[in-house]
């Protein structure tokens, strides 16, 4: 039986990775790794071990759920042990030697790995899964996106901030610079000289790589919202051909990983509470942008669970593909 | 001393209108009107009277803060009594005989009233005040807007829903079809055959009238968010000329009703909690849209208090202009 280690097993994403492996009955033996602080913790019947240079001996696959700096520290140990790593940090995503994979879109890229496969940014995965069938149908030149991102994107500390603040508890903020309860914060990540944040660049940079579209343009605004764990995205799609709403619904109905939720007259549309703890991305509010005289612009609203499809589920799907190929 | 009646004085907007009149020390005598149910209630030292056909006798100005159907019922009574009405409902906004006014933008339109002046939609006021100086500087052809609207937009019932749900109280929803706590609802108003909601049409329809720009194009997505009383808007501005961020900041610094909050490196940007109970609209996250090869597109983030500048403050500013003209 193949042996899988989860590095960063005590975080929100790490815990979800274990849950996803169990739900899917993957025939693997799992080892949980985390910092010394978490050593001995028991998660779902497994004892957490301290991540050391020897942790990866005898391990076949690693699911990485650590911050960039921590990931960069243990990655050489995993590589030396011959593991294949599916890494959720952003440290290696744009590395030419590292495939960046959303299995519904570019599973074939997995074949070209050199020991590391990167899991994309959560908002990017959710947007791309929601829009991939539309891109195939109408072509896609440019996206204008406003993300409304859940606090879980900042990990368990983000969730704690929102919970504490709603309860009115006077404790220091752990994840966000400002109160997030009853508020919105239009900053996720640091800003560059153009006034664009790191998170805002990811959808263009990672989208180009995943879709193999080096010319794709994405104007992105990222906003943190007081929602627990699902991201929502309001997306304008400038396409190559004229768009058609009925056809858009048809292709989305067939799309892997997507649930069409688009009957606004009957109050059917995607909402982050409904995608919470769901693997699928919900797409709805599909309409033609009447302000484009050429009729080539489509407007959609997309929601997806940031911890599941935006992180853990996607990584475990990649692991699943690796296991299939290894058979 | 001129006599002012507030119709719908017990709602969130009506109460704020009284507060704004008092803050500004307007030299008027105020009368509070509401439905029979609220008769006898005391608000800020004034006893609420029942709104009847005789209520407007001897009244000079009416501030309307009622729903459309209620407004249509009492409007003939106010007109027969010779009152000038500043009305916050949407019933008369697009009527050719009714000026639709944001005092910072088109105060001169007040002169052409025939007894009714309409107060625009809250999101429209906030967007237009935030963007007017940019429009003057760069010209404006098209806006792509995602609004994130506070629960107060649905009145006191909207606020009650969020408060009850956060407390975990198992009471029926009063304002929204779904839970709004920890959720987003991409519906405000009913949808038409294009899948566009009434609220989403308002920014184009009202924006054209206020700005005297019959060709203005607005693609709008309206989302309800778990914020108490300030709306936020992520706005893409397609301009007529090349845009310049430094110049944008300069003109916004001079703009009436605007506070520039744009130093993202130092975590200065507009947030709805900061505009709560403020009359000014905050503008920030100003950047050039690098995905427009012509360099004519600007991206901004705008917040404003929906009950104040989005409704009561704007109406009371119009009243103030009327009083000045009557001197």
Automatic annotation (TrEMBL), chains A, B:
Query: Catalytic activity, per the record?
Result: L-aspartate 4-semialdehyde + phosphate + NADP(+) = 4-phospho-L-aspartate + NADPH + H(+)
Pathway in which this enzyme or protein is active: Amino-acid biosynthesis; L-methionine biosynthesis via de novo pathway; L-homoserine from L-aspartate: step 2/3; Amino-acid biosynthesis; L-lysine biosynthesis via DAP pathway; (S)-tetrahydrodipicolinate from L-aspartate: step 2/4; Amino-acid biosynthesis; L-threonine biosynthesis; L-threonine from L-aspartate: step 2/5
**PROSITE patterns linked:** ASD (PS01103)
Active-site residues annotated for this sequence: 122, 231
The Semialdehyde dehydrogenase NAD-binding domain covers: 3-113
Q: Where does NADP(+) bind?
A: 10-13, 37-38, 152-153, 172, 306
Q: Tell me, what's a Pfam family for it? A: Semialdhyde_dhC
Q: Name one GO biological process term.
A: 'de novo' L-methionine biosynthetic process
Give residues annotated as binding phosphate: 93
What is a GO molecular function of this protein?
aspartate-semialdehyde dehydrogenase activity
Q: What is its EC number?
A: 1.2.1.11
Q: What class of enzyme is it?
A: oxidoreductase
Gene3D superfamilies registered for this protein in UniProt:
Dihydrodipicolinate Reductase, domain 2, NAD(P)-binding Rossmann-like Domain
Write out the residues that bind substrate. 149, 224
- What InterPro entries does the annotation carry? Asp-semialdehyde_DH_CS (IPR000319), Asp_semialdehyde_DH (IPR012080), Asp_semialdehyde_DH_beta (IPR005986), NAD(P)-bd_dom_sf (IPR036291), Semialdehyde_DH_NAD-bd (IPR000534), Semialdhyde_DH_dimer_dom (IPR012280)
Q: What does this protein do?
A: Catalyzes the NADPH-dependent formation of L-aspartate-semialdehyde (L-ASA) by the reductive dephosphorylation of L-aspartyl-4-phosphate.
Q: Which NCBIfam families match?
A: asd_B, PRK14874.1
State how it assembles.
Homodimer.
Family stated for the protein in its record: Belongs to the aspartate-semialdehyde dehydrogenase family.
Q: What is this protein called?
A: Aspartate-semialdehyde dehydrogenase
